[in-house]
């Protein structure tokens, strides 16, 4: 991820629909992390979460209207407590639902800082996954940073970030075909930002 000052500058230049689209893309890509956790631990309401995420995409393409203020409570109740679930899998699941909550807040408040927090959540999810699951515990901080930044998953994350911004910045209006293509990119054939799918 580029430094946050540059990112904030880019985000501040975006229209409200573009902010929501960026946030939606990152959230969609993180969602399998929650879906798999939910399935394995029988936690939360995946159907509700999916419906709300679909509602965000419909909102972007000018489709059916959803009351996003009401949905905030539904999404909030699906955030797994990291105190209650003392396991690694709860962290990316937690991040995915917090990202969806921020996406709804972005729709309601048109706030670039919400989008920045979603991008950061996604980036940190990937970094933490690499550190917890694949890094050598003997690594120095410098080696760990290098290992994370050059890891295939982080390279994918950076490429995804670039691609999303490239597409958003070149699009004046949120027509249906554009939103659908952005959604397809974010869905990534069901593979999340940390390389898992909920069909595992």
Automatic annotation (TrEMBL):
| Organism encoding this protein | Nitrincola nitratireducens
Q: Which domain of life is it from?
A: Bacteria
Protein name, UniProt field: DUF416 domain-containing protein
InterPro entries referenced in this protein's UniProt entry, alphabetically? DUF416, YP001051499.1-like_dom_sf
One Pfam match, by short name? DUF416
């Amino acid at each position: 991820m580029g430094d946050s000052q540059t990112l904030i500058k880019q985000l501040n230049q975006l229209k409200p629909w573009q902010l929501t689209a960026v946030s939606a893309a990152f959230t969609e890509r993180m969602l399998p992390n929650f879906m798999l956790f939910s399935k394995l631990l029988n936690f939360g309401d995946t159907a509700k979460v999916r419906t709300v995420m679909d509602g965000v995409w419909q909102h972007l393409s000018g489709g059916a209207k959803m009351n996003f203020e009401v949905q905030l409570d539904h999404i909030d109740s699906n955030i797994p407590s990291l105190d209650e679930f003392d396991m690694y899998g709860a962290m990316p699941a937690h991040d995915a639902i917090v990202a969806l909550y921020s996406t709804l807040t972005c729709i309601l408040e048109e706030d670039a800082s919400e989008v920045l927090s979603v991008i950061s959540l996604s980036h940190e999810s990937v970094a933490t996954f690499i550190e917890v699951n694949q890094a050598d515990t003997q690594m120095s901080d410098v080696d760990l940073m290098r290992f994370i930044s050059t890891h295939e998953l982080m390279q994918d994350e950076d490429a995804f970030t670039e691609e999303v911004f490239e597409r958003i910045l070149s699009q004046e209006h949120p027509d249906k075909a554009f939103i659908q293509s952005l959604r397809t990119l974010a869905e990534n054939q069901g593979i999340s930002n940390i390389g898992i799918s909920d069909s595992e």
